[in-house]
Request: fold
Amino acid sequence: MTVDKAFERIYDDTCRKCCAHILSKCHAPEDAADLVQETYLEVLNVLKTKGEKHIKNPEAFVIDTANKKLWAYYREKNRLQVVASLDADDAPDLPDEISVTPADAAERALFVREINETLQKKPEKIRKIFALRYTLDLPLAEIAERLGLTLSDVKTSLYRTLAELREIYGEQRSE
Reply:
């Protein structure tokens, strides 16, 4: 399949969800169209450079790319607000040190890896619920619909597993 055909297929399959996702996260609707465009330009670049086989799950890839574009958007927006406030007479006091050290970031990455390893040992239903909730940021009702479960079953599975993770890792996290 050509790059253009692959892109067209991915765009057709994911555009509605990507637009809804970006609109739900972007507080400025006038910027949402630019973010959607940037997202799909990135998808096209990946298709051109790495090929279609690099994108195993197009919907997850597009939403992940959109999230990265949203992060960059808010990071830049926040940076511009800080720069603008520095010009004002009532500029806020900025911290002298960065609050997150590389060691903290590494510790967090290890912690996330441990949690992922624990989740991989769970039944497929639990893994799917977590992926849809925390990777695609879907509402619980939509997760239930997609997986053919009741909303109650999704809530119970999610909250019991979260409680179990808190029990396992809660003490470790507070040290």
In short: Residues 58-87 form the longest helix (30 residues).
